[in-house]
Design goal:
By secondary structure, this protein is an alpha+beta fold. It has eight helices and eleven strands. The strands form two sheets. Strands 2, 3, 4, 5, 6 and 9 form a six-stranded antiparallel β-sheet that branches. It has a five-stranded antiparallel β-sheet with strand order 1-11-10-7-8.
Length: about 270
């Protein structure tokens, strides 16, 4: 796989309502992850952190870019096994205890000699692409309201205020197992990639997301601006965003990715 120069930024905030940030994220080029935990402290936050730990292990051990989908599937399966095992241990003392997490993943892979984005999602965290001033949601929400939209029973606008809009139909930690969706995008089809928890997409409309991605050139500032906009809109949930720009195949000395990663770790505690 040819080396790709990526500029990236990430931000997270507990929001104005929750006492614990159950979101976790990983910025470890060429692997990026956002996981939104469910179940409360020592439940959702642990589940989302397990996902980040497993993908961090994938980065540390290295992966074959030509077998990207297989590696991502295996990593998700290991995360699921750990979350289920952790949950079984907790329920021995607390029968009603539960934990789960959504996950969105972006990984650079080699597809027959061409570098592409491999994207995966479980739950209602989202992946967007931004190209030529247009924002498109790549991932498809695994949620009750998305099923109602697909069935033509409600509109997309009605889904944003539906009382069951936070009920998801797929998640890591589910006893039914995990079935992620995968998407493959060529690099020229993506000017900007954005991964986020529903603390972003559930608080601000796509038009506001597009305006920020279009008007804020530095991905670090763009991630901060997305989280800040979610907080200004009420901050009813944990809010996390990762913004990634594909700069090219030649290294840009004006951007120090190692310094950026160290800055994120110091600012946000990104490393598991």
């Amino acid at each position: 796989m040819k080396p790709v120069d990526l500029h990236h930024g990430a931000a997270t905030d507990v929001g104005h309502v929750r006492s614990v940030n159950e979101d976790s994220f990983l910025v470890a080029p060429p692997v990026f992850v956002v996981a939104d935990g469910m179940g409360g402290h020592a439940g959702g936050d642990v589940a989302s952190q397990i996902v980040v730990e497993e993908f961090a292990r994938l980065v540390e051990q290295g992966y074959d870019p030509s077998r990207g989908a297989e590696h991502v599937s295996d990593t998700i399966a290991r995360s699921q096994a750990r979350i289920v095992e952790y949950g079984e241990g907790q329920r021995a003392d607390h029968p009603r205890w539960h934990a789960g997490t959504t996950a969105v993943v972006a990984v650079l892979v080699d597809d027959q000699g061409t570098t592409k984005w491999l994207l995966a999602n479980l739950g209602d965290s989202r992946i967007y692409r931004f190209l030529d001033g247009r924002l498109d949601q790549v991932s498809v929400d695994h949620s009750v309201v998305q099923e109602l939209v697909d069935a033509g029973q409600i509109t997309a606008e009605e889904a944003t205020v539906h009382p069951e809009r936070h009920v998801i139909t797929r998640a890591l930690g589910s006893p039914e197992g995990v079935h992620p969706d995968f998407f493959l995008l060529p690099l020229p089809a993506v000017e900007r990639l954005m991964l986020c928890s529903d603390g972003i997409s559930g608080m601000i409309p796509d038009s506001a997301i597009a305006a920020i991605l279009d008007s804020v050139p530095d991905p670090r500032d763009a991630a901060d601006a997305l989280v800040r906009a979610a907080l200004d809109a009420g901050g009813r949930d944990n809010a996390t965003a990762i913004v990634i720009d594909v700069v090219g195949l030649v290294h840009d000395d004006s951007y120090d990715s190692e310094r950026q990663r160290a800055s994120l770790e110091d600012k946000l505690g990104a490393r598991p």
